[in-house]
Write a structure and sequence with these properties.
The structure is a single chain. The protein is an alpha+beta fold. Helix content is about 45%, strand content about 15%. The protein has 33 helices and 25 strands. Helix 4 runs antiparallel to helix 6, helix 16 crosses helix 20 and helix 26 packs antiparallel against helix 27. It is globular, with a radius of gyration of 31 Å. It starts with a strand and ends with a strand.
């Protein structure tokens, strides 16, 4: 059992023995990169003084006290002292924690355990090691592990002891842009003195961005504070006043970029590094860890520039999609591509980060494609439309096809194949009959799917259904648009016509849920059962009709209401709390329908001699437009039926002792599910681990480029005049109530409030769990607060001068983490 190991004897496979930080330093040392000499106090030493199960079962405070009061065994002390002596006589060292759950690809643990700088002397080094052990049980470290689903009892701490670099200038470097995601950019934050000033966010550093061989951005910070080593040990914070000179030369910036690329090349992935330049101008690498907040890159076989649109996010699904859910979409996509473009093997369907994207590069390079997709998204997902429009001037996606002929030819072919003109004309002439024909499709789809395999049902009963339904609903909206041409309308009037639409399957379901609540309310037996957590017969009847619906229902792998009615029960409880007839959903619906009919008459009278046409057109709008919900309803109905078949197959695999529970089948694909041999449990466990990790991802890009850039996070133009301006640190925009906090101890932060602070260090981390956004006076884009904000997916702006004095608690503010703008409202909101 070795209690200490030198860096040269450590490699990346030794995580359990040396922890993440030391494993990386060993890797970098063995790669001949300029890492200061040092050694690691192994997890074996920690195990000798710590009982993990006992510490995990007590409070963090008691765990820390136990470790601080436990004597360091002589054998371990001797090993630490021997390793320290080999570095030199009483030389200054940095003593840093290195946990086994640290510097991992999915969780950086940046700053969660303690670091002690400029430690001098044998006793001081041993004491610093002991304090590092105790820091594994700080409130922030415990909270971070729980947030990332890491078991306390399986986490151990090693400690790095490394020669101090007496830095003339130091800082951090990301080998990919952590704000925009761009993989080709290197981002450097630098300040004079020790790097802790930059890492902790205590100073506004100089900020540099290198793209290829070019320095594309230089933003100078005030660099008011410097952290320096003291003779004999310890550090001091010195106020040196504002400094408007860059602390790095262009040559040093390029040398850092070269070093960053070497580190990334060694690991094969973007890295978050710490570095220092000493008084002699020598560059040192003091740490490297994976950048954990970047969204993964899609596979890109041709290496060209591509644009990917996140379909699942546009459908309101931030969560990952189960493997079976994605397998189902692959079949649907094959069918869509075969029908629409004649190529079932199209590469436009892309899975990435357990989510579904579409490659829209060819669409953007077509004049017709651009207009069609952005107009369509303008209705469905307006922000995505804006983001895509922002790429129109990018030369990589310049228009290559101006002719509308290919698109028109395809549209006419599809219209003829699926008899779209006939369907549309029937809807126009006899809308009631058209509605009945559409509603009969549910029975036809289910009967057809029963005769097919699951994959065949997905290919033959989803996409082909849409052309049979869409024309009927579109005629309704076309009539609405025509009225807008015939009659001069005021804003909102045409939308009023769409209130309380009949033939809307979603409204029908909502009304059925309301009826369920009323039946329970007026039946004492059912109400008592419901209040006692039992299932009244009325609930079972509702589920028999609507149990195939679900939250996030486009994922075939997620439970339906019939599997887990918790959501329905929650909604019914809310309905039971409603007071007053006017608040009841059926009253609201009836009132909306009456307002729509009144608006039709208003518009008809305004049209004078064309009033007959207005009534004709808008009556068809009212009858047909509600069918817009029906295509998705049919798909979900089919999914419900297919899910039952899949669950039955899962039960067979359980009976064959190949799965533990039937629902594990949804973490397989169709081929794996039908394989005849082999235990599938380990595969399911691996898939669940990835799925659970992606469930914790806080930020999903609407649009992603092949170089990792999120166009929505790229700063286009300057902030509005009068805004508070800082450095973009974590992309996204949020409007909420500000909470100015000067000290995290005892601070109260309501969920969704925006934390406004002078600066942050790891002690602030628990507040990030409930914060909706972050504004910091100090710090750069790579400071601790910015790193954690990105991990938690909250918008953040840092380096905002006088933020804590210019922003008041209770004030509504908007934080734009992409532009660096913080906009304040006129008056504060009362907060407790």
């Amino acid at each position: 059992m070795a209690f200490t190991i030198g860096f040269k004897s450590i490699d990346g496979t030794m995580l359990a023995t040396v922890g993440g930080k030391a494993a990386n330093l060993g890797e970098l040392t063995r790669a001949d990169l300029p890492v200061p000499q040092g050694f690691c106090v192994t997890t074996d030493a920690y195990r000798e003084v710590a009982e993990a199960d006992a510490l995990a079962s007590t409070t963090p405070e008691n765990a820390r006290r136990t470790l601080l009061e436990t004597p360091v065994p002589q054998e371990i002390r001797d090993a630490i002292v021997d390793g320290y002596r080999k570095l030199g006589d009483d030389i200054p060292v940095a003593v840093r924690s290195s946990a086994t759950a640290e510097d991992l690809p999915f969780a950086s643990f940046a700053g969660q355990q303690d670091t002690f700088l400029n430690v001098v002397g044998e006793d001081a080094v041993v004491d610093a090691v002991r304090r590092c052990w105790a820091s594994l049980w700080t409130d922030r470290a415990v909270s971070y592990r729980e947030t990332n689903g890491i078991d306390h009892t399986t986490t151990y701490l090693a400690v790095v002891v490394q020669r101090m670099v007496q830095s003339a200038v130091s800082g951090v470097m990301f080998t990919a842009n952590p704000v925009t995601g761009t993989r080709d950019q290197i981002v450097i934050d630098a300040s004079p003195g020790l790097g802790e000033a930059v890492v902790s966010g205590a100073v506004n550093p100089d900020h540099f961005v290198v793209d290829g061989a070019e320095i594309v951005e230089k933003r100078l910070g005030d660099k008011k504070f410097v952290i320096r080593s003291l003779p004999g040990g310890g550090t001091e914070h010195v106020d040196v006043g504002e400094n408007d000179e860059p602390c790095l030369t262009d040559g040093q910036i390029h040398a850092l970029a070269v070093l960053g690329r070497k580190v990334q090349q060694h690991y094969g992935s973007p890295q978050d590094t710490e570095w220092a330049i000493d008084d002699d101008g020598e560059l040192h690498l003091t740490q490297a860890r994976p950048i954990t907040t970047l969204f993964p890159l899609p596979a890109n076989p041709d290496g060209g520039a591509h644009v990917y649109f996140c379909f699942s996010l546009a459908q309101g699904l931030e969560r990952p999609i189960t493997p079976m859910g994605r397998a189902a979409f692959r079949e649907v996509a094959r069918s869509a591509f075969e029908i629409v473009i004649g190529d079932p093997a199209s590469q436009s369907y892309v899975e990435n980060g357990e989510r579904i994207f579409f490659d829209v590069t060819k669409v953007l390079r077509s004049k017709v494609g651009r207009e069609f997709v952005t107009r369509l998204l303008g209705v469905m997902e307006a922000r995505s439309s804006e983001v895509l429009r922002g790429l129109f001037d990018d030369p990589r996606f310049a228009i290559r096809s101006n002719s509308p002929a290919p698109a028109l030819k395809r549209v006419f072919r599809l219209a003829r194949r699926f008899r779209v003109p006939v369907t549309a004309m029937k809807a126009l002439v006899n809308p009631e009959k058209a509605v009945q024909a559409a509603l009969r499709m549910e029975r036809d789809v289910l009967e057809k799917s029963d005769r097919l395999t699951i994959e065949q049902a997905l290919r033959q009963c989803v996409v082909p259904v849409l052309p049979g339904l869409a024309p009927t609903a579109l005629i309704g909206f076309a009539m609405l648009g025509l009225v807008g041409k015939v009659v001069k309308t005021r804003p909102g009037e045409l939308q009023t016509v769409l209130r309380g639409l009949p033939n809307n399957i979603t409204t029908e379901m909502d009304m059925a849920m309301w009826d369920l609540a009323q039946e329970i309310r007026h039946d004492p037996v059912a109400l008592r059962q419901f209040q006692n957590g039992e299932r009244p017969a009325a609930l079972d009847r509702f589920l028999a009709r609507w149990g195939h619906r679900a939250v996030a229902e486009i994922d075939l792998g997620l439970p339906r209401w019939s599997d887990d009615p918790a959501h329905v029960i929650g909604v019914v409880k809310n309905f039971l709390r409603l007071e007053g007839e006017q608040a009841h959903p059926d009253a609201v619906f009836a009132r909306g329908a009456a307002e729509a009919e009144a608006m039709i008459e208003t518009l008809a009278r305004r049209a004078w001699g064309r009033g007959w046409f207005v009534r004709f057109a808008l009556r068809r709008t009212r009858l047909l437009a509600g069918l817009r919900e029906y295509p998705k309803y049919l798909i979900i109905t089919l999914f419900g039926a297919l899910r039952k078949r899949l669950t039955a197959i899962g039960a067979e695999l359980v009976a064959a002792d190949r799965l533990d529970v039937a629902d594990d089948v949804f973490f397989l694909n169709f081929e794996e599910m039908r394989s005849e041999h082999g235990d599938l449990r380990s595969l399911v466990a691996q898939r669940r681990e990835v799925y659970d990790r992606e469930m914790r991802r806080r930020h999903i890009p609407r649009v992603l480029l092949s170089d990792g850039t999120e166009p929505e996070a790229v700063h286009h133009g300057g902030p509005v005049e009068g805004d508070l301006v800082g450095t973009p640190a974590s992309a996204g925009t949020i409007t909420g109530v500000a909470r100015v906090v000067m000290d995290p101890v005892g601070a109260h932060l309501e969920p969704g409030e925006i934390l406004v602070a002078p600066s942050t260090d790891p002690g602030w981390t628990p507040l990030f769990l409930t914060a909706g956004g972050l504004v910091m006076e100090m710090g750069g884009a790579n400071s601790h607060g910015a790193v954690v904000a990105r991990e938690y997916g909250i918008p953040a702006v840092v380096g905002v001068r006088q933020a804590v004095t210019r922003i008041r608690t209770g004030e509504r503010i908007t934080v734009d983490g992409s532009t660096g703008a913080v906009t304040t409202a006129d008056s504060p909101v009362e907060v407790s």
